[in-house]
Write a structure and sequence with these properties.
The protein has 4 helices and no strands. α1 runs antiparallel to α2 and α2 runs antiparallel to α3. It starts with a helix and ends in a 5-residue tail after the last helix.
Length: 97
């Protein structure tokens, strides 16, 4: 799951450049910062943080009012997947002792 989360963070980071919304400063910075946070917490295997960041990324189009853009699609997909990964790995998976 570590590499999966890192790849999703990298996709969020790169999304403005291949989806054509890099000219919109707020959306650009949202994707860059969110992507970096997912990569950092994913590489540290801190899945509870990954879950919270995924939730924020998922809800951001409604909170910040960019629901009708390409950024919203990427935000919903990556936010939902990372949120579910964080939920499963951070809270639901039982550690083997």
């Amino acid at each position: 799951m570590k590499w999966f989360t890192i790849i999703l963070g990298a996709l969020l980071f790169l999304a403005p450049f291949f989806s054509g919304y890099s000219g919109q400063a707020g959306l650009l910075w949202f994707s860059l910062i969110g992507g970096v946070l997912l990569v950092v917490f994913g590489s540290m295997e801190s899945y509870k943080w990954v879950g919270w960041i995924g939730l924020i990324v998922f809800l951001a189009p409604w909170i910040f009012g960019f629901g009708g853009t390409n950024a919203a699609t990427w935000s919903w997909i990556i936010g939902a997947v990372t949120g579910l990964v964080g939920l499963y790995k951070g809270w639901l998976e039982k550690s083997e002792a």
